[in-house]
Amino acid sequence: MCGTGGSERLKERNINEVKVSFYEPSVNDRIRVAVRYENAWRPIFWLMVRKDGSIYLGPRYTNVSVLRKGTKEISGSRVSVKYEEGQDITDPELRKSPKVSFHASGRINVVGDRLLRDSLRTIVEQQELCRALFQHPSHYAGISKIEDRDICLDYPLDETQPLQGILFVAPSNNAKLVRIPSANQQINLMLPFSGFTDVPDLLLQFVLGHGPVGPWPPYAYLMFGTLSGRI
């Protein structure tokens, strides 16, 4: 079984040799995605979708000791980011809530900055919204009780291969199953949303996977594209 959860809203199946979990959330649900490590479920990511279609998300932390931001030019379809890069954010208020919000208008709010991407109000094709590189799961606190909005994915962790998550967004009538060519393992979590005020029904697809052998990052990283052509 590729997943479990605190309610019967989570279903699992295999589609074209890809493990897929389906969960039916409601608007304004704060969803936590957890993986199992050392006999404990450890939430590593959270997201919430508002009534207007805006999407709030971030890696899951109880305390943030280091917060950095930066941009990189995209060369073709590749981007290279060094772990030590970025500008330190020392504002304690920004460290308290280092979430990112993707608004239906296309505005992105992140650590005090406002950036732009394509509007979700006019979305017609599936798009990558963002991707996350996670620290080793030992850095995330375990939970003693699984709540109704916790999605626990029984992912086959590999100590030698860092874990990443990629979030895609699509109109519900034009969503496609994503297979990551570089991933040795992956689980696709499908989250359908409907009933928005000025955004079409959406399907969010969170792809959790690992690829090349290498060191785990010292921090969690969140990356996303903007209209400026930078990430």
Question: Can you tell me about this structure?
Answer:
This protein has 231 residues and is mainly β. It has one domain. The chain is built from 1 helix and 17 strands. The strands form 3 sheets. The protein has an 8-stranded mixed β-sheet with strand order 1-13-4-5-6-9-10-11, with no helix packed on it. The longest helix is centred in the middle third of the chain and has 5 residues, at 92-96.
Number of strands: 17
H/E element sequence: EEEEEEEEHEEEEEEEEE
Average of pLDDT = 84
**What is the number of helices?**
1
Cα-based radius of gyration, to the nearest Å:
17 Å
Q: In what range is the share of β-strand residues?
A: 35-45%
Distance linking N and C termini = 35 Å
Helix content: under 10%
Number of structural units classed as domains: 1
Q: What structural class results from the helix and strand content?
A: mainly beta
- Detail the poorly predicted runs: none
Reported for the largest beta sheet, the result is: 8 strands, mixed
Oligomer state equals: single chain
Query: What is the spatial order of strands in the main beta sheet?
Result: 1-13-4-5-6-9-10-11
Overall 3D geometry? Answer: globular
List keywords for this structure.
eight-stranded mixed β-sheet, 40% strand, mainly beta, 231 residues, 1 helix
Task: Explain briefly what this protein structure is.
This protein has 231 residues and is mostly beta strands. The chain is 2% helix and 40% strand. The strands form three sheets. Strands 1-13-4-5-6-9-10-11 form an eight-stranded mixed beta sheet, with no helix packed on it.
